[in-house]
Amino acid sequence: MTKASDLFIQCLEEEGCEYIFGVPGEENLDMLDSLSRSKTIKLILTRHEQGAGFMAATYGRHTGKTGVCMATLGPGATNLVTAAAYAQLGGMPILMVTGQKPIKKSKQGRFQILDVVSMMGPITKYTHQLASADNIPSRVREAFRLAEEEKPGATHLEFPEDVADEHTDSRPIKPSLARRPSADPKAVRAAVQMLEKAKSPILVIGAGANRKMTGRMLLQFVEKTGIPFLTTQLGKGVIDETHPKFLGCAALSAGDFVHRAIGAADLIVNIGYDVIEKPPFFMKNEGGCPVIHVSTRFAEVDPVYFPQVEVIGDIANAIWQMKEDIVPKGWACEKMLDYRKAEVAHTASLDGDDRFPIFPPYLVRKVREAMPNDGIICLDNGVYKIWFARNYPARQQNTVLLDNALATMGAGLPSAMASAMVYPDRKVMAICGDGGFMMNSQEMETAVRLGLNITVLILNDGSYGMIRWKQANMGFEDFGLTYGNPDFVKYAEAYGAHGHRVESSAHLADILKHTLDTPGVHLIDCPVDYADNDQILNKDIKELSAAL
Predict the structure, then answer these.
(1) Quick check: 165 pLDDT over 70?
(2) What b/e string do you get for 346-375 counting C-beta neighbours within 10 Å, with b at 16 or more?
(3) CA angle 541-468-466, nearest 5°?
(4) What is the number of helices (H) and of strands (E) in the chain?
(5) What is the mean pLDDT of residues 445-461?
(6) What would the pLDDT profile of 484-543 be if each residue is shown by its tens digit?
(7) How far apart are CA 222 and CA 374, in angstroms?
(8) Residue 523: what are its φ and ψ, rounded to 5°?
(9) Under 8 Å CB-to-CB from 481, ≥6 apart: which residues?
(10) Which residues contact 387 (CB under 8 A, 6 or more apart)?
C-alpha cells in the first residue's frame, strides 16, 4: 500500500514534472513531505502564490508541458486566481494543487474554508476535489491531458489533508501517445482556391501559431507564395520579424500603419488566432474582407469575428498542406509593404531621440541592440508594451513574452525568472513599469536565492502610466494615478541583487551591456519620459498612416 501523497508525487513524476512552484501551508504538509523524497521534482519556494502561478504558466508557455504550482487552502488558493486566469486566457498549461481541511471529519468548523473548486470553475478547463486516494492517478492524468490539449490552459486539483494521509494500492497512469489530427483535405482545397482567386491576400499570425512551433512551415509558405504577414502581440517571433515580407505587429487598436496594410487586403488568412486577443481587425457582416481561419480549434464566433472558411487541425501540417497545393499568383501586395516602409521610417525618425529621462522609442532600440537574437524579454503590463510590440523586431519564437490575453500587471518578473530556469544559457530581461514591478517585487528574493541570471529593467515614471495615457486621451484631468517609489537601487541591494541607475541616455547602453554580461540578478532603475505618448500613439501615427 502506498500513502496517497506519495502516490500523488509519483503521478507528477510520471508526467515528467520538473518543478513545483509555490507557497505550502499546513494542509500541504503530507504532500511536501512526499516531495522531499522525490529524485526528479524540485520545489521552488516563492514569496507569493501569484508569483508561483506566473512562473508555472511561463514554464508551460516555453515547454508546452504543464507547469505545476501549489498553495494552501483559503487565502493561498485565492492568491492563485489571477495566475489561473493568466494561464487560461494566455493558453499556457498549468496544474494548480491546493490543500484543504479534512473533508471526512474536521474539528475546525468553517475556519478558512472556501468552496475553491467552484471558485476555480469559471477560470479553468478542469477543477476537482480529490475525495479518494484510489482515484488520484486518473484525476492527475486528466488534469495534465486537459491542461496541454489545445487550447492549453489552467487545471486545478484540491487535495484535502485526510485524503493525502490515506493509503491505496493504485499506481500512476502513463501518458498516452497522442497526435493532433490533420486538417481535412477539402477544407485545405477550399482555402487554397480562395487564396488563388484573391488579388491581395495577407497572413495574420496569432497566439496558436506561436504555441505549436509552426515557424518553419510558415516561413516556407511565405517564401513560396510571397504573401506578406503581420502578427498579433502573442504571435510575435513565429517568423523572424526582419523578414522582407513582415508588415508589423498589431499593438494599437486601430489606425496604425499595420491596420492600413490589413485594409489593403482582399483576403485575410488568420493563423492560430483567438478572440481572447485584442482583435487586429474587425470583420463586417456586409461587404467586409473575407477571412480564412487556420487553427487547431474552430473559431469562436464574436461580433468582430466570424470567418468564412475554417481549416481545422494541426496548424503546421495545415500550412504545409496549403503550401504543397497552392500555385503562387502575382499577388499585388506592394501597397501593404509601402505601409510597412512608412512605419519603419517613422520609427527611425523617433528612436534616435536621446533626451533624458529616456524616450520610449530610443529605449526599445537600445534594448534590441543589447539583446542577442535568442535573448528573451518578458514584459509586464503597461504603455511600454505597445512600444515594444510595435518597434522591437522579434527574431525567434517566444523571445518576446508579453501578455495580451489577461494583460495582468505583476507577471513580468516571475515570467523572466521561469524563462531563465528553462533557458539558463540565454540572456533574459524583465521589462516592468514601476507599478507592475512592485506588485510582485518580493520575488527578487526568490530570484537571488535560485542564483538566476536576469536583468530587471524598471521604467520609472512614478505613475500608472498606461491608465494616465488613456485618461489624457479621453480628455480627463490628470488625477489619481501618481505615487512615490522606493530607492530601487537600495531595494535591489537589500535583496542581495545588484542595483543600477540610468544617469543619461548614453549611459543606458553601457548598463544594459554590463548587466547582461555579468551573472546574477540585476535591477536597472530607468527614468522614462512618456509625455509624447498621447501625441505619437493616438494622433501622429493615425494621421501619417491615413495620409498614405
Answers:
(1) yes
(2) bbeebbeeeebbbbbbbbbbbbbebbeeeb
(3) 65
(4) 24, 20
(5) 98
(6) 999 999 999 999 999 999 999 999 999 999 999 999 999 999 999 999 988 999 899 999
(7) 22
(8) -120, 135
(9) 463, 464, 467, 468, 471
(10) 360, 361, 363, 364
What whole-number distance in Å separates Cα of residue 230 and Cα of residue 204?
A: 5
Angstrom distance (rounded) from CA 522 to CA 502:
13
- In degrees rounded to 5, what are phi and psi of residue 103? -100, -15
Output the nine-digit C-alpha cell for 283.
470583420
Q: Which residues, in sequence order, are CB contacts of 453 under 8 Å at separation 6+?
A: 420, 424, 428, 519, 520, 521
Per 3-state DSSP, what percentage of the chain is helix, strand, and coil (rounded to 5)? 45, 20, 40
Tally of CB atoms within 10 A around 46: 28
To 10 degrees, what angle do helices 360-370 and 505-517 make?
Answer: 30
The single-letter DSSP state of residue 182 is: P
Residue 377, amino acid:
I
Q: Transcribe 297-325 into DSSP letters.
A: SPPPPBTTB--SEEEES-HHHHHHHHHHH
CA separation for the pair 405, 39 (Å, rounded): 36
The DSSP bridge partners found for residue 378 are 401, 430
The closest of 401, 360, 418, 409 to 236, measured between CA atoms, is: 401
The CA–CA distances, whole Å, from 311 to 148, 205, 228, 351 equal: 21, 14, 20, 40
Q: Tell which residue, 230, 236, 234, has the closest CA to residue 256.
A: 230
Q: Using the 8-state DSSP alphabet, how is residue 247 labeled?
A: E
322-356: pLDDT as tens digits: 999 999 999 999 999 999 999 999 999 999 999 99
Give the other-Cβ count within 10 Å of 256's Cβ: 24
End-to-end CA distance of the chain: 74
> From the CA atom positions of the chain, what is the Rg in Å?
24
- 492 Cβ partners below 8 Å, 6+ apart? 444, 456, 498, 499, 521, 522, 523
Q: Which of 471, 479, 477, 481 is CA-nearest to residue 534? A: 471
- Side chain identity at residue 368, one-letter code: R
Backbone angles phi, psi at 172, to 5 degrees: -60, 150
Beta carbons within 8 Å of 182's beta carbon, 6+ residues apart: 313, 314, 317, 318, 321
